[in-house]
């Protein structure tokens, strides 16, 4: 269950980062509310997951999901650069997160 909590926390982080990008572009109050709710959701599930997952592993995976997912979402929603190099390094983050799951 702890790994599911960590995955949910990562999804909340990804949603929060995407909402932050939307808010910074539009100053829309809905986006601000979505960002706050997403980060509260994310931190709540991160807290629950870290009850059994070591902090070094859990935090690394949480930030990896947020960084890779946020980058992909912002590339898709806000037409950020879609270069091969960018996809390659996002791929490395994802592989690293998977590796941490198997050694944790």
Molecular shape:
flat
Report the sheet with the most strands, covering strand number, pairing sense and barrel closure.
none
Structural class from helices and strands?
A: mainly alpha
Tell me the fraction of residues in β-strands, as a range.
under 5%
Mean pLDDT reading: 92
Unreliable stretches, pLDDT < 50, 5 or more residues? none
Q: Indicate the percent of residues in helices.
A: over 70%
Task: Outline the structure in words.
It is a single chain. By secondary structure, the protein is mostly helical. Helices cover 86% and strands 0% of the residues. The protein is built from four helices and no strands. The protein has helices at 2-26, 29-49, 55-77, 84-103. Helix 1 (2-26) packs antiparallel against helix 2 (29-49), helix 1 (2-26) runs parallel beside helix 3 (55-77) and helix 3 (55-77) packs antiparallel against helix 4 (84-103).
């Amino acid at each position: 269950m702890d790994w599911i909590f960590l995955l949910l926390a990562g999804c909340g982080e990804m949603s929060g980062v995407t909402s932050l990008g939307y808010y910074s572009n539009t100053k829309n109050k809905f986006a601000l509310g979505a960002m706050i709710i997403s980060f509260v959701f994310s931190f709540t599930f991160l807290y629950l997951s870290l009850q059994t997952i070591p902090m070094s592993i859990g935090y690394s995976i949480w930030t990896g999901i947020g960084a890779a997912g946020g980058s992909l979402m912002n590339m898709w929603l806000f037409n950020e650069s879609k270069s091969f190099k960018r996809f390659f390094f996002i791929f490395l983050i994802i592989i690293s997160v998977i590796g941490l799951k198997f050694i944790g």
